[in-house]
Amino acid sequence: MPGTLTAALVQKLTKVNRLDQNDILAIQQLPIHSKRVAAQHRFVRDGDRPSESCLIVDGFAFRSKLTPDGQRQILSLHIPGEIPDLQSLHLHVMDHDLTTLTECTLGFIKHDALRELIKMRPNVAAALWRETLVDAAIFREWIVNVGRRPARARMAHMLAELHERLALLGRTLNGSFELPITQIELADCLGLSVVHVNRTLQQLRQEGIVATERRTFHLLDQAKVEELGQFERIYLHQRPSI
Amino acid sequence: MPGTLTAALVQKLTKVNRLDQNDILAIQQLPIHSKRVAAQHRFVRDGDRPSESCLIVDGFAFRSKLTPDGQRQILSLHIPGEIPDLQSLHLHVMDHDLTTLTECTLGFIKHDALRELIKMRPNVAAALWRETLVDAAIFREWIVNVGRRPARARMAHMLAELHERLALLGRTLNGSFELPITQIELADCLGLSVVHVNRTLQQLRQEGIVATERRTFHLLDQAKVEELGQFERIYLHQRPSI
DNA sequence: CGAGTGGTTGATATCTTTCAACCCACGTGG
DNA sequence: CCACGTGGGTTGAAAGATATCAACCACTCG
Which Gene3D superfamilies match (chains A, B) (predicted)? Predict the structure, then answer.
């Protein structure tokens, strides 16, 4: 059935952009080669020159960089409906890795097809460009998080952001959401050591504002989490706003 | 004379993108309203809804965010030929501030004019989109810098990056470049305290790899600076690369 | 049952911040 | 012409945050 792969993408794009029926159809008719991929699979690598971009149909993925001395910094987490390496359309050499966090369904779309799409459908072009700009906005906030907030606030901010983004997809329930991430990965997201992440989480649990349970996070006191993390949702640019 | 304002922009864009004579002409004929602005002037503010974007014709500027508790994080430094708030074309509400570091000549370009330009000149559209993607690439490296590198390396990385970007404009000489920035601003760039920036700089000076003199930095041992900062220029995407 | 992964703990070392001065160059007003 | 105020840089001491190291525990999987 055409459109099942692009469902989350279309949902996301139409929430903020004015796309007409033909725009949507053009997206749904993109030739997509989908693949089921195991967790922790690095499917795009620093230095690669991809000829296709990759839509996350289902599951979580992340972007990361390795420093020459072997440290890892995770740059962003990605959820269904996002195209984390859309940039490779214009930047031909990858400057970071893309890895699945969980088992994922990925949809690979040839750059040629995307180029054709943005040539024929200016609305879609604008919407995709916009997506890459939101991406950058999230990076900026990530810089603030890592540069200026203490560990507890960093963690809180990240959880608040994830909650907000997942909420838009309808993947949250009463402040809870599924996110199968290890403390090692959290540490690499936040620029902290694993041990410190562990202690920070414990503190948040003791304060009763966060609970974790296997693969899901519960924000028990969402307002508190957002306040502690200084979370202000404007930077996500989720509203039409014009 | 048409084109004097856009000189640095055209220089930058044509270095990596294939623009024909008409593309260039279209850029040069953009209606630009230029203005001389004092140092430390915040000319775009968090929350604004700009109807124009701003080209740096001459001088330095930076983007920054303030946290609710009054801390500042500088997100990027900008040099002539860049349009730091090009994003406002698609993201209608600003999520950060834009401030001049030095006295600047700024060129304001109406969004309407830019929209017309990208509609008529797809090559230019692609080039501008690409610029915003390079912007994001620099943010990513900035995240790594702040998240994973100790103070000395952070400083070194930033200096190496600035040198590289200024070199492309021909504004470096034997590892030296002009950058009138205070230690307070450096601290906000690097996510450090002023005191620590001061000590870090002293250390770099004592090691003989960096010298500072009023408004100019000298990278006495450029290789050493790049190694210490783990600087790898690919992420700047300065080469055509296709 | 043993190995491996992810989580937890305590002790200690290191890095970075904070605080509180102080210095210096510069520009301004008396 | 000089006193003074100011911004930027520098310093030392102490406090605080985070990292590191080295175990140990719990659970899952083959």
Answer: Jelly Rolls, Winged helix-like DNA-binding domain superfamily/Winged helix DNA-binding domain
CA distance A94 to A116: 22
- Taking chain B (242 residues) in consecutive chunks of 10 residues, what is each chunk's mean pLDDT? 84 95 97 96 97 97 97 98 98 97 97 97 98 98 98 98 96 96 98 98 96 93 97 94 63
Q: Say whether A132 and B130 touch across the interface (CB within 8 A).
A: no
Last residue of a domain, one of A113, A141, A169: A141
Q: Which of B87, B141, B146 sits opposite A136 (nearest CB)?
A: B87
Q: Domain limits at A230?
A: 150-236
Smallest CA-to-CA distance from A218 within A162, A169, A170, A165 is with A162
CB contact under 8 A, A241 and B135: no
Co-location of B88 and B52 in the same domain: yes
Please compute the mean of the pLDDT values over residues A212-230 and round it to a whole number: 95
Q: What is the pLDDT of residue A2?
A: 62
The answer as to whether B65 is a domain residue is: yes
B85: which chain A residues are within 8 Å (Cβ-Cβ)?
Answer: none
Helix (H) or strand (E) holding A121: none
